[in-house]
Amino acid sequence: MVSYVTFAQRVRLCRKAHDFTQKELGEIVGVTESHVRKWESGRSFAGAEKLGVLSVTLNVTTDYLLGLTDDPQPTKERLLSEYSSDELMKELIRRWNG
After folding, report:
1. Is residue 96 packed enough to be buried (19+ CB in 10 Å), middle (13-18) or exposed (0-12)?
2. Strands (E), 1-98
3. Which helix (DSSP H) or strand (DSSP E) does residue 95 occupy?
4. CB-based contact 2:96 (threshold 8 Å)
5. Could you report the per-residue pLDDT of 49-88, keeping only the tens digit for each?
6. In this structure, how many other beta carbons lie within 10 angstroms of the beta carbon of residue 6?
7. Long-range pairs for 10-17 at CB < 8 Å and ≥24 separation?
């Protein structure tokens, strides 16, 4: 199950690992510093589009940010062997919607 707490902790942890301020991460992702602060406090969740940008920016998977896995960077080969492109998108949407 997706958790606000896990998402908040992981966004903060990854942001700090990349040495970004909340303002810098917000500028990269295309949101305000206030949005990043809300994500990190567990008061808000990133939408699907911003979640994708966050995962690329922080070099982790969306599943990791959402707490669906503890593996921040599964191998490309494993992902491709598990899902076709369409199946992968459907699986991400399914997991997002719970």
Report:
1. middle
2. none
3. helix 85-97
4. yes
5. 899 999 989 989 888 999 888 878 765 555 566 666 677 6
6. 17
7. 10/60, 10/64, 10/65, 10/67, 11/36, 11/39, 11/40, 11/46, 11/54, 11/58, 11/65, 12/40, 14/58, 14/59, 14/60, 14/65, 14/72, 15/40, 15/58, 17/58
Q: Report whether 57 contacts 25 (CB < 8 A).
A: yes
pTM, 2 dp: 0.72
For residue 73, the model assigns a pLDDT of 75
Residues 6 or more apart in contact with residue 66 via CB below 8 angstroms? 2, 3, 6, 7, 51, 95, 96
Our measurement of the distance from residue 35's CA atom to the centroid of its chain's CA atoms, rounded to an integer in Å, reads 14
d(CA 82, CA 67): 19
Q: What is the pLDDT of residue 74?
A: 62
Q: List the structure tokens of 30.
A: 């295309």
